[in-house]
Amino acid sequence: MKNYQLILFLLILILSGACKKSLNDNQAIKSDVERFLEKSEDNNISDTLRIQYLDSAYSDLLNSGNDSLSRTYLKRTASDFYMLNDYKKAIAVSDKYYNFSAEAKDTAQMAKALYLEGISYYELSNNDSAFFSYKEAERLFSGLNDYENLAAIILYKAHIYYNIGDYVLCESEAIKALRLLREQKRTIEIYQCYSLIGTALDGQNNNEEAIKYFQLALDELENFKDEGYTEDEIEDYRASCYNNMGLVYVKMKRYDEAISMYTEALEYRGMKSAKPFLYARLINNLASAKLKKGDFTDLPDLFIKALHIRDSLDNKSDMIASRYNLGQYYVARKDTAKAITYLSMAYNGAKAMHNSTDILKSLRLLADVDVKNSLHFSEEYIRVNDSLQEKGKADRNRFARIAYETDRLETEKEELAKKNTFIIGVSVVVLLFVAAIFMIYYLNSRNKKLMLIQEQQRANEEIYQLMFEQQSKIDSARADEKTRIAMELHDGILNNIYAVRLNLEFSNRKSDEESVLKRKGFIKELQQVEGEIRAVSHDLSRNVIFEQNQNFDSILAYMVTSQKNTVGTEFEAHVDATIDWETIPNTTKINIYRIIQESLQNINKYANARHATVGIIKDDKIVKITITDDGDGFDTAKTAGGIGLKNFKKRAEALSGELAIESAPGHGTTVMVQFPL
């Protein structure tokens, strides 16, 4: 026993030590992760080193458990990868972050993981995957009533619709986001919404409405000061909005207004150094507006200046626009060779970047300028235009299909949830019904058991009462017998003994023959007294034996043989001695007793019999009771509905037995009951 306890104690120590070691290891990993993340967020070190620290943090997180702290670290790691423009790693970490959150059934974290995944896909121009992630995140944020993140997700979706050229859906989603953003008074996002709606309306050639929304964006900038934005930051946003408005004014041929906006934007402080991309764009668009107006002042120098800045920034997409504009300029100046050179460079750059819009613009102008290759460029333009239209249509259909599939999956989930709820509800009802049936059955069984116990108690009480009545009768008979014996002793034996004693005393005084003969007579009288005493002794012995055998068969026998009636019927009882009455239930004995009692009462009342017999025998597992008399008998057909016979039948049924009554007028009666033990 001691060895067993020692082994158990050692096992507990080992397990607790292992658990403690696992906990300590996990805490050490979390500590390392925190240290790596802090180092990765140090802006004073190179991006390469920061990414290496993030890699180390992510590697440790893969070996840690799935808890709330691990998920928080994964979110932080994915965000840091995104900020360092390593979008592929941001996607990988976001995917792990989503899986951990789904495993923990943390819907809020699942939505944030999809959010990070979506913006990372968007930066990689993977619009399909970005849209799917946005759509799933939108569903989760909507279910959580997280309107802040929901508005951001819808705005990102609007940008995707703009990228694929579906300006109507872009406008619709942006307005949906704007409604949520206004309620939250999120200034920067409201500004972005107005700008995007204006751009979408421009894409629909709804120029006047586009100008209105750009003006709303400019008006929103007045709220930036209240949120702590500097004047330089506000000027950057204003310059960007002026650039977009200028493009619309050029389309509306309101060149002076476009030139005024570009010129004002270029005068903002620090534009050239702080926002070189926007600065080059403003110069290029200013030059383009002047070209379309027919004002060649500072041209082509402005175009060339913008091209050089873009080249220094390696901004290939904007370099295409600069070369295209230079081609337009030389077309206007009738310098076909230079025009073809710049347009060809723009066309080749657009092809390299798969920029269909710039390809079409370049081909259209080349077909007009390069007479020699005009047919080739025209055919290529038609082919690319048809392909672009097909691609646009396919993109719209694909995104519509993604939206439909996402909605369909959501509908199926809801239907499945409803079905599960219904199944659970039905199961609960069935279980409750089964439980109710079981409870009813249990209560009924318990009630039956209680009734059986009560019936047994009543039977015990009746047996006790019968035994008490029997004992009372015995006590009464014993008292009568004692009184009789006392009288016999007093009146008979004592007087005789007293007379004999006196005679003997008198005769002892004489010795003659006559006296001897008298003494012999007195001795005979003493013998008679001895006989009387012996008779009394025998009576007392019988009474003792009767008292010592108070079992059920003796009760029955006494009940039968003690019957008295006015016609002097002689009663006999024959009880099978092999019956073990102790094993028979009291309820059975009560019914036997009552059947015999009822039969004896009927004999006393109606039979006028000279002789009656009660017999109880056991045949295998069957007990047979027979009560017979030689009295007047009766017609069983006429008395079939009597109360006595009904009681006989009920008691026979209680014994699971059979009742038979045979009688006829003048031929006595026989009552037979048999039942199984």
Q: What attributes characterize this protein structure?
A:
rod-shaped, mainly alpha, Serine Threonine Protein Phosphatase 5, Tetratricopeptide repeat, single chain, 5 strands, protein histidine kinase activity, two-component regulatory system
Can you walk me through this structure?
The longest helix has 134 residues, at 374-507. Among the domains are: 1-124, Serine Threonine Protein Phosphatase 5, Tetratricopeptide repeat, CATH 1.25.40; 154-229, Tetratricopeptide repeat domain (Serine Threonine Protein Phosphatase 5, Tetratricopeptide repeat, Alpha Horseshoe); 230-314, Tetratricopeptide repeat domain (Serine Threonine Protein Phosphatase 5, Tetratricopeptide repeat); 563-676, Heat Shock Protein 90. The protein contains 23 helices and 5 strands. A hairpin with a 2-residue loop joins strand 2 (611-619) and strand 3 (622-629). Residues 1-23 and 541-549 have low confidence and may be disordered. Helix content is 77%, strand content 5%. Helix 7 packs antiparallel against helix 8 (167-184) and helix 9 (187-203) packs antiparallel against helix 10.
Quickly describe the structure.
The chain is mainly α. The chain has helices at residues 2-40, 47-62, 68-83, 87-103, 107-123, 127-144, 147-163, 167-184, 187-203, 207-220, 231-251, 255-266, 271-274, 276-293, 301-312, 316-332, 336-352, 356-369, 374-507, 513-548, 552-561, 586-607, 643-654, and strands at 570-575, 611-619, 622-629, 658-663, 669-676.
CATH topology of the domain at 1-124: Serine Threonine Protein Phosphatase 5, Tetratricopeptide repeat
What is the approximate shape?
rod-shaped
Query: What gap, in angstroms, lies between the N and C termini?
Result: 53 Å
Instruction: Name the CATH architecture of the domain at 1-124.
Output: Alpha Horseshoe
Averaged pLDDT = 83
How many β-strand stretches? Answer: 5
Low-pLDDT windows of residues: 1-23, 541-549
Oligomer: single chain
Strand arrangement across the biggest beta sheet: 1-2-3-5-4
β-strand percent reads 5-15%
**Rg, Å, rounded:** 61 Å
Largest sheet: 5 strands, mixed
Domain Histidine kinase: 592-677
Protein name: histidine kinase
TPR repeats: 239-272
Transmembrane segments: 422-443
